[in-house]
Amino acid sequence: MSSESFDYVVVGAGSAGAVIANRLSADPQVRVCLLEAGKPDKSRMIDTPLGIVGLLRFRTYNWYYYTAPQAELNGRRLYWPRGKTLGGSSSINAMIYMRGHPEDYDEWRDLGAPGWGWDDVFPLFRAMERNERGADAFHGDAGELNVADLGNPNPLGAAFVRAGVEAGLPANADFNGAVQEGVGPYQVTQRDGKRFSASRAFLDGIRQRANLRIETGAHVARVLLEGTRAVGVEVRIGGAMRRIGARREVILCGGAINSPQLLMLSGIGPRAALARAGVELAHELPGVGANLQDHLDVSVIVPDRSGNSVGVAGNTLPRAVAAFFEYRRKGTGMFQSNAAEAGGFARLTPESRRPEIQFHFLPTILRDHGRKPVWGHGMTLHCCQLRPKSRGSITLRSADPFAEPVIDPAYLSHADDLGELLAGLKLGRRIMASPAIAALSGGREIDPGPARQDDAALVDFIRASAETIYHPVGTCRMGQDEMAVVDDRLRVRGIDGLRVADASIMPRLIGGNTNAPCMVIGEKAAGFIRAERNEPAAAMV
User: Superkingdom of the source (predicted)?
Assistant: First the structure.
């Protein structure tokens, strides 16, 4: 088995891993290896914002996971797309730029993560951002991550905003500004009408660095340990197994599914679960794979009579062809859409300190993540619960490093979650029945539909149709108690030379989309590593 050594080995080139590889390789005195299981991201489907339809439908750049059967969702196995390419899920997502609510980060700090409060992370968000609106008290314009207003937005988005105001929500042109609550257009990670992923922001400009190796098609099988120190990884590249050494550190950035899986495959995790999978225990950490949280989502769908929605109907082909050539020529038009063009945040009671519900508005009919086209023209409002109390898990299916893990989010296993999601659905329904939308829909509703009016019928609808909105976190939780996997500097407890830096370290799910927060997690990790470069690494006891 061939081998080679670097100072740092970064596993996963997603939103956090791309940032870390960029920052560490800025020092020419160190060698960095960035390993990505997926293919390169040079693809028109990735660059074209509306290409998200194909990215979610096909396996080319997508892990294409499914959950275990969900007891509270009629035993359904839910589809969980995750990015499998440079940029990770930032290369297949809806490009929404969102930080979350400031109190989310203060909550992390108060749960045992000093240095992770809003005052600690806000400067990193601002410094990373290149907002096309310009710099102000809340935004930066000198960072690598391009943030833009959507070009050529569909007019139905403005109708949704008017409907939200009619339903009692304030208009909000900046969800990352002074206040999160309200309805408005989303800003997106795009530049010149193209997707601007973590790969575009943090890798494209540094690929020529002599001290940086980027390997795609590199599926890491396990972390190599010598006693309680990580010394490298075993990885399959081009069908051959190789060992890549890490003189200083291995940093796992595989996300909420792959990072705990890799720890457990390496013998780090809950004793009983590893024994069931046939993995020899190297270091017991009972919290690995626990604490899985995700945003569960349910939709309101109404027809559209304006002709502005994107639908499958008799005029679809000529419209699509014309739009495609417009995008090829000018980078404008329908193909510039990120699909979820507008949305909002709502508190369910006046006493709530922060929103419990987020909305994503799409000028199309969307079911099953767009994998099955629906005939007709319409509008979809996704309603998701932001802070679920349900907790699931990631466990090993077997000791085979190339077998998918068991993903069990345990949706709605806490009774409070169903009540909040039901309230969010009712509010979303009220918005979509408001005059600004009713004038376009004729007052008709497709989903949940006129036959479903009482709570029991709406609960049945939730159980039959709710889906992920793609924000799994928490499975390598940061903290100080016995179930914490990493400390506040993201070091794996009890193991030297090993960190985790991705959505899995979040103690609790933030109230919003998770892409930008993962980039900041990468920024924090890189800062910790640089600060400790000349200090002996100390394992947490």
Answer: Bacteria
HEC letters along 283-349: EECCCCCCCEECCEEEEEEEECCCCCCECECCCHHHHHHHHHHHHHHHCCCHHHCCCCCEEEEECCC
Tell me the two tokens of residue 206. 């540094």
Question: Which residue is it, tokens 């791309």?
Answer: 18
Max Cα separation, the chain? 68
Residues 365 and 484 in one domain: no
Whether residue 256 is found in the same domain as residue 361: no
Strands 268-269 and 342-346, bridge-based pairing: unpaired
User: What per-residue confidence (pLDDT) applies to 537?
Assistant: 39
Q: Give the whole-angstrom CA distance, residue 504 versus residue 492.
A: 12
Straight-line distance from the first to the last Cα atom of the chain, in angstroms, rounded to the nearest whole number: 33
CA angle 6, 9, 13 (to 5 degrees): 135
Residue 121's pLDDT is 99
Cβ atoms 446, 440 nearer than 8 A:
no
Blockwise average pLDDT, block size 10, the chain, 541 residues: 89 99 98 99 97 96 99 99 99 99 98 98 99 98 98 96 99 98 99 98 98 99 98 97 98 99 99 98 99 99 94 72 86 92 98 98 95 90 99 99 98 98 99 99 98 98 99 99 98 99 99 99 98 58 26
- 75 assigned to some structural domain: yes
> 302 lies in which domain range?
151-185+296-385+413-465
CB neighbour burial string for 90-124, b if at least 16 within 10 angstroms, e if fewer: bbbbbbbbbbbbbbbbebbbebbbeebbbebbeeb
Give every CB contact of residue 183 below 8 A, 6+ residues apart in sequence: 160, 161, 164, 165, 169, 170, 171, 172, 342, 343, 344, 359, 431
* Rounded CA separation 303/444 (Å): 7
For residues 22 and 34, give the distance between their C-alpha atoms in angstroms, rounded to a whole number. 10
Residues near 44 by beta carbon (within 8 Å), at least 6 away in sequence: 51
CA distance linking residue 43 with residue 211, whole number of Å: 26
Residues tagged in the binding site annotation for FAD:
220
CATH number at residue 115: 3.50.50.60
Domain termination site, one of 450, 465, 480 = 465
The question of whether 369 is a catalytic residue gets the answer no
Q: Are 7 and 27 contacting, i.e. CB atoms less than 8 angstroms apart?
A: no
